[in-house]
Amino acid sequence: MIEDIPKEFFRSITFRYASQEDNIEVLVEMGLQPENSEEMLAFLRDRHKEDSLESLLDKPFEAKLQLIPQPTRFSDGTIRVFYSAPEVDTAEVEVRDLYLTHAFGNTREWRTVYYMSFSCDYAGDTKDLRPHVATLPCLIQDEEPGCPGCHRIAAEAVRDGLNGLLTPSARKPGGTCLPVFRREALSNPRKHEWVAFRFDPETGLVSPSTSS
């Protein structure tokens, strides 16, 4: 599907939001309520002061113990992908929409989830698919119709030894995403801030608030 697209060595800062599901379980056990966001964010910061920054880069490439592989846009569940974006606002929109779609579902209750925003350096062989949306519409289609095509693209990229792809964001018009397939293409991770994404059941919207 992408064999005729030339590869180039690409360098960039890229941004990602790391989920903190394990922390939320601890917070629930502590009896903290979602409205106590500042207390929760302070707890998360203190709990992770000694965390290895490299673990933020390692985690997406670690094997996951799942009975059934969980597919994502560029993985059928067997390919490890570090999803990121060269623009911080695109990274935020991507994770906000992902959480709204997959985590909140049809709930009619207020919900809050916490992510760590961070950046790192990317360098590696890359194919830029952004000019090829007309022939690769799966790149910006909704996940259900678009995923099979994106899975084939990712499998080809991994087979060819590519480090990553530049793709148009399916959730932010004009935005760019950078799915990365090889851990060695990433370095120099830098934490930025904790972000609480809150779902308002009355409006159906998710809004972020930050605490550095």
Textual characterization of the structure:
By secondary structure, the chain is an alpha+beta fold. The protein has one domain. Helix content is 28%, strand content 28%. The chain contains 5 helices and 6 strands; from the N terminus they run βααααβαββββ. It has helices at residues 21-30, 37-47, 54-58, 88-104, 143-159, and strands spanning 7-19, 111-128, 164-168, 176-177, 186-200, 205-211. Strands 1, 2, 3, 4, 5 and 6 form a 6-stranded mixed sheet that branches. The longest helix is centred in the middle third of the chain and has 17 residues, at 88-104.
| Strand composition percent | 25-35%
What's the overall geometry? Answer: globular
Poorly predicted residue ranges: 25-30
Structural class: alpha+beta
| Gap from first CA to last CA | 42 Å
Reading the helices and strands in chain order gives EHHHHEHEEEE
Find the count of extended strands (DSSP E, 2+ residues). Answer: 6
Number of domains: 1
Helix count? 5
The value of Rg in angstroms is: 18 Å
Report the major sheet.
Answer: 6 strands, mixed
User: What is the helical fraction, as a range of percent?
Assistant: 25-40%
Mean pLDDT: 84
Characterize this entry briefly.
With 212 residues, the chain is α+β, with helices and mostly antiparallel strands.
Annotate the secondary structure layout.
Elements: E1 7-19, H1 21-30, H2 37-47, H3 54-58, H4 88-104, E2 111-128, H5 143-159, E3 164-168, E4 176-177, E5 186-200, E6 205-211
Parallel strand pairs: 2-3
Antiparallel strand pairs: 1-2, 2-5, 3-4, 5-6
